[in-house]
Amino acid sequence: MAKIKEYKGGCFIHEHVSASEVFTPEDFTDEHHMLADMAEKFVMKEVLPVLGDIEAQQFDETVRLLKKAGELGLLGADIPERYGGLHLDKISSCIISEKVALGRSFAVTFSGQVGIGSLPIVFFGTEEQKKAYLPYVVTGEKIGAYALTEPTSGTDALAAKTSARLSECGRYYILNGEKQWITNSAFADFFIVFAKVDGQRFTAFIVDKDYMGVSVGPEEKKMGLKGSSTRSLILDNVKVPVANVLGEIGKGHIIAFNILNIGRHKLAATALGMAKRALELSVKYAKERRQFGRSLSEFGLIQHKIADMAVKTYVNESMIYRTAGALEQGWKGENGNIAQTIADYAVECSINKVFSTEVLDFVVDEAVQIHGGYGYMAEYEVETLYRDARIYRIFEGTNEINRIIIASTLLRNCPSPSKGISRQEGQAVAFANETKQLYDVKSLFWAMAGAIQKRHVENGTEQELLAYLADMAIQIYAMESALLRAEKAIAQNAVDMEEQKKNYVQVYIQETIQQLLGCSLNVIPYLQDEQLVKRVSQSIETFMRGPLVDTVTLKRQIAEKVIQHEKYVK
Question: What Rg value do the Cα atoms of the chain yield, rounded?
Answer without folding.
Answer: 24
